[in-house]
Amino acid sequence: MSIDDAARCPVAHGGAGSPAPGTAAATGATGAPRRARGDLSRRPDDRPYTGPAKAVDAAGASADTRPHTLATNTSSLLGAALNLTAQLDVREALRHFVDRAARLTGARYAALGVLDNRGETTAFVQVGMTEAEQEILGHPPRGNGVLGAIPVDGPLLLEDLTEHPDFGGFPEGHPPMHSFLGVPVRVQEKVYGRLYLAEKDGGFTQRDAEDMMSLAEAAAVAVENARLYTEARNRERWIAVSQDITTTLLEGTEEEEALEMIAARLREVAEADTALIVLPSVGTSWVCEIADGYRAGQLVGLVFPPDGRAMTVLKEGTGMIVDSLTRLRTLRLNELAHFGPALYAPMMLRGEGRGVILLLRRVGEPEFDRSDLMMAESVAGQAALALELAAARHAQDVASLLDERARIARDLHDLAIQQLFATGMQLASARTAMAERGEHALANLLEESLTSVDESVKQIRAIVHSLREPDAAVVLVERLRREASLARTSLGFAPSLIIEVDGTPITDDQAQADLITQIDDRVGADIADDVVAVVREGMVNAAKHAKASSVRAHVSVLGSGFTGRIVVDVTDDGLGVPPSLSRRSGLGNLAARARRHGGTFSIGRTESGTGSQVSWQVPLT
């Protein structure tokens, strides 16, 4: 039913007395709206409508003397109210409400316009009009004009709506209407929507208005019940999604694949059209790394401004709901102008923002509510934690893999190559003996065998080289700094790293380039790999067992050659060495690395008695 300022209706352009959008009559805000001539809800004392007992017909006090219709049947009204309050689906409840209102009053047309926070119609349920008539009219009424004149606290009863001062004419194709009854639907003291009834034979009566106000109260209860039920169901869905996300990430899913899954599941559970995940990129910029849903391809790679809403949410650590991006006066990203309602949820972990989840709906879709925001913030926080755990697990897996490759390389070097050397020496002795005896054929055969042994040694050396870390060619100082940087993920803070050569700390790479090169020359590639592993394992141990707030790794190169040594100390201020810590853990590997080079390894409390200290030193030979 369209009787207000539709796009083609003259009243849409400021008909006489038409309330401007944003006024009390248009928005449904509390407070008495301006009453126009023909508003039959006017009362001599001008007090608000207080209930069905208040007379609201044209006479103001005379009772309806006509025979009672179905609308006066108390049992029918009670049955309709009970039927409404039993509904747990909002849309179904609204449909029943409009249908019952039309049947109880005998109105030919009935409709309900649901209002948003700005008083504009966001949903429209109607009976009486054919599909063909609706197609001709196009969009539903926006809720201004005569419809906007419905009081927030009582009905609007008109014998002929065309005589109302706010009426500006019907759009083309609109069926003629005269008798009219409008009733506000209030939920928790807020106008949730407006009920429109039109074209009743003989006109609407005072009793119709009273009955519809009562039915509107039942509809309000039904809407609130349905809202609470829907909120509970949605909370269950959010929790299920949160559990799925955490479980999937902890199972070892790759981070990019996990982020794509998070975006897809959040978009589904929030009934959004698009989900974005904004993460830190190069430098200080934040970029949409993952997008799922409508226009996802155009949004991936979108750089978010440092003073925008996403970054504000990230800095404050609190989510935000925007009723419509298209209404914002300042929208720095034109790509988001295709969307209406938006929800920003920060991915917070230990007070630090790791990213922002942005949920979007198309223009005209319902707004997100506070319950959506609360659940989205919770899931975003769990997603941030699960991502960090996955990253830590990935780093641990990589460290274990590198350690295993290093062990295989050592075994090949120390065992296989040595055995081949011994075999080669025996073959060389046998070849010499055969040659001295004049058995040249056998000597030549042994020579070929020696050549094969030499080739095998070369191949094993190549394999050992390939098993070493990909960045083994990088100088030791840089490799240690990289380990300290990677440890920040598992520790939650940046550890301290001190590297010294004969008591001189490395502080300026450019000025001390020769000293940095000397470190690699003195230590050698084999010991350098073990030093990196010791620093890595020491920091992993602090992250797993110490619960420390600070960790320091001190690497000191003293002297060179047979008289030189390298010392590695990793200390923390945590709980100290746990009694259950076994030498069979990664620390046992550090002891094996020290023994291999003729060095020592120990772990215990620091000199101050608090925290733990891992000490590892070997000679530079």
From TrEMBL:
Highest rank taxon of the organism: Bacteria
Pfam families per record: GAF, GAF_2, HATPase_c, HisKA_3
Domain GAF: 89-233, 254-397
A molecular-function term among this protein's GO annotations: kinase activity
Keywords: Kinase, Transferase, Two-component regulatory system
InterPro entries referenced in this protein's UniProt entry, alphabetically: GAF (IPR003018), GAF-like_dom_sf (IPR029016), HATPase_C_sf (IPR036890), HATPase_dom (IPR003594), Sensor_HK_TwoCompSys (IPR050482), Sig_transdc_His_kin_sub3_dim/P (IPR011712)
Positions of the UniProt region annotated as Disordered: 1-68, 601-621
Biased composition, class Low complexity, residue ranges: 18-33, 53-63
Sequence ranges of Basic and acidic residues compositional bias: 36-48
Bias type Polar residues, positions: 603-621
Protein name stated in the entry: Two-component system sensor histidine kinase
